[in-house]
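Thread: "does anyone have the structure for this chain?"

Original post by V.I.:
We have the sequence but no experimental structure in hand. Need at least a predicted one for the grant figures.
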Amino acid sequence: MGMPLLHHDWTVAERDALPDDGNRYEVIDGELFVTPERIGYALLGPADVVFSAKRGVRPDVFVVPPRDGRRPDRFDREKGLLLAAEVLSPSTARADRVRKRALYRDEGVPEYWIIDMDARTFERSTPGDPRPEILAERLEWQPAGASAPLAIDIVEFFVDVLDR
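Reply from O.Q.:
Generated one for you, tokens below.
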């Protein structure tokens, strides 16, 4: 739960009059509590993510920040992508590992993951490192503004996905 906001004897009616800005407001015994808006929305493809007239992709999974406190419904002229991820397949391997990795790096996407089901690894790419990091045990991702990292036990992930 968020921290109390302002020293004032708040009512539910006053809370209800606050702007709809994506934050969650609650009143408890006259104190207003606010839970800040989320860092981003995880979305499953296919959805068009358009960077320019000649750059449009459909990532398998991607994370976008809220716009005006809400989940965006369009992703054209997308400059705020926080993460893009592709599940590797034989027909997409070259595009995912070469062309898309370069595109996401050029566009400044902070994280690009390739999930290799056969190798049971995640390949993490960032704009500042030309070589991907190959992860087989654990992945931690903490985008700017997040209070704690998302931690993925990669071994457990693949057991859940492939071995059940």
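V.I.: this helps a lot. The chain is about 15% helix and 35% strand.
O.Q.: and The first strand starts at residue 4 and ends at 5.
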